[in-house]
Amino acid sequence: METTHNSAIGRDFIMQELGELKREKGITREELSEAMHDAIAAAVAKRIGKYLEPEIIVDVDTGELDIKVPKEVTETSVSNWDEITLKEAEQYKSNPQLGDMLMVPIVIKDLGRQAALIAKQRLMEKLREVEKRHVYEKYQSKIGNTILNGTVIKGDERSGYYSINIGKVDAVLPKRDTIPGDEIERGKN
Q1: How many Cβ atoms from other residues are within 10 Å of residue 127's Cβ?
Q2: Are 4 and 105 spatial neighbours (Cβ–Cβ below 8 Å)?
Q3: Which end of the chain has fewer CB atoms < 10 Å from its terminal CB, N or C?
Q4: Is the pLDDT of residue 50 over 80?
Q5: What does residue 115 show for φ and ψ, rounded to 5 degrees?
């Protein structure tokens, strides 16, 4: 029986990427796990349909993925994604009966290129949402009562807004919130 886990190379790559995300973006293990789960669920749904609910286990500590999809036991399998023959079903259950629904492991690469692209897109979307939430939470409490240091990236006299870099984040400073008489120039703190 074929293993359902990623290859060692894929697992090492996933672990390296996840480690970078944790360090650079401050994304927690749970947030990574949830984002990966959602991304893989979207890829599986694209391939097998959104009404068949797969079991997906993502272990962000080891990089292991365990994906199982529901398949109905039939005499002859017409659809590779939602049916399994009686003979094949014997690998997963002793004495299977026609009509039984079994959770059958699949290999992620079998989902295909389009599903991989969907998973990647969904993962990046989820991670951007998490990162935005982290930035919001970090600076929300500072509104109105904190002075922050930053570097002017650009200013637009006509619109009256300035782009300011404050660490890892770019912020917008309305002209009305500046000190009257201050000259705000690009590159200055």
Answers
A1: 18
A2: yes
A3: N
A4: no
A5: -65, -35
Three-state DSSP at 177 gives helix
Q: Contact 84/98 with Cβ under 8 angstroms?
A: no
Contact 63, 14 (CB under 8 A): yes
**Bridge partners of residue 152, in order along the sequence:** 164
Backbone angles phi and psi of 30, in degrees to 5: -65, -40
CA distance 13 to 8: 9
**What is the token pair recorded at 186?**
């690009």
Residue with tokens 């991304």: 39
3: pLDDT strictly greater than 60: no
- Beta-carbon-side half-sphere exposure of residue 80 (alpha carbons within 13 Å): 4
Contact between 172 and 161 under an 8 Å Cβ cutoff? The reply is yes
Q: What is the reported pTM?
A: 0.68
Contacts of 101 (CB under 8 A, 6+ apart): 70, 71, 72, 73
